[in-house]
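Chapter review: from sequence to fold.
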Amino acid sequence: MKSKFLKYIFVIIVIVLVIYSVYIIYGKKDNNENNYDTAKVSKEEEIIDNIRIPIVNFDTINPILSNNAQVQNISKLIYEPLLTITEDYKIELCLAKEWSKVTNTSYVIKLKDNIKWNDGTLFTAKDVQFTIDRLKDSKVKSIYAYNVENVTGIEVIDNATIRINLDKEVPFFEYNLTFPIMSYKYYENEDFVNTYKNSNPIGTGKFKVVSDNGNVILKLNENWWNVEEKDCKLSQIQIIKYGNMGEVYKAFKIGNIDLINTDSLDIQNYIGTIGYNLKSFKGRELDYLAFNCNNEELSNKEIRQAISYAIDKQNIVSAIYGDKYYVANFPLDYGNYLYEQEKVGYEYNMDKAKELLIRKGWEFKNKTWQKVKDYRTLRLNFNLVVNSSNGKRVEVAENIKNSLEILGIKVNIIKANDATYKRYLENRNYDMILTGKYTAFSPDLSTYFGEANLANYNSETAKQILNDVNNIREEKTLKEKYNNLVDIYKEDIPYIYLYWNRSSLICSSKLMGDIKPNRYNLFYKINTWYRQ
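The token string follows.
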């Protein structure tokens, strides 16, 4: 009996232990699930649906009138163009649903249906006509006047169709149709430049201006037409005005603003090196060396190739720009979808430079390269023109001079004042000139390979390609044409592209989302942005 009793006791104890274990396991699971739910809520509670953007020297939120670069960046959130530009610089429909080049000097544009201004009024062709008229008005003095300088007339065919006529063919004119459109009805019977309405204008974009009392407040536009991108984690953007960049840097360091757009090479001196994310991209300033292909020696592509081998671009970027600029290889290597080759220039290689010269009959004698031609002794000795008022370019010219003299090519630097330098450019009476260009968004390369280019370079094949691409819209064919142009450049080297400037978007470590700025638009995929 005692034995049976002990067995019963043992069984009871085992059952109790099993029940207790089950309770503990499932109780913990429930607690974990509850904790997980709490964590989710907590994480959701950390999402702040507004961001703060600084602006210095604010003038007006009207982008047609503003001369402030930051206003132009922000305006892309409020106003929209007929056509826009993607992250890889393709042209893309925006307010327009279709465009066609009818003749070399005429374009027809059809507008999307049922687009509304943020006050609920309907967007029509009259708005486009009104905007172009304002851009061409000399009293307005808009930075977008360049976009329409060749426009001679705008015909409103119907409420959704316009025809734009030009005074001459403009390569890739569609890239000029990226200016913000303003409302005709909103400004009707108003002095466009001086009206009080400029403090609270209306747009068709993702955000709308709701206040300009002190600081500009943007809120989501409930009338926005783009259903595909209408969902947005942000509900508000505050544009905070500052007197100078010093105030901006201070505000960023203490967490009062969330991002800074800058071209400064010394930004870390002002905000330190931690507590933020740096999104850098190639800017719009391209510096390059142009050869005079009419020069007796420089008319030989092998001489130009040898010089290309002798110039160390990376050393220039490191020594003069502290590795804060980008080495350039071609005018489209800033991320343009038409540029598919990584390297098109000549990598720094003194041995190859010397081999090229020797192969072409040059002899290194008396510390210079010489060659007898028609009973004359030719020597590689060139003038290099640079603008004396541009200190950095003078340093670059000195760097190039040193590199070429190591190779054995004599260089005399001409430091020209502004007026003289301008005459050199106009007359093209130099051996080599160090210059630069503020590049457009268009892939038009006629500046470099077309008529009256700075290198006095003449290639009928290149000119034919330039003519062809202006009338091609099929992407594959366009890429083939541009690849052919790149190959021509690699062979002939009428220029040496040196470096791009660098632009940066400095983002607080608390600013989250898919942040992919480029030089056209800082706010791609802003619908994914939020603050923690």
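Two observations follow directly from the output. The two ends are 71 Å apart (CA to CA). The CA atoms of residues 82 and 159 lie 14 Å apart.
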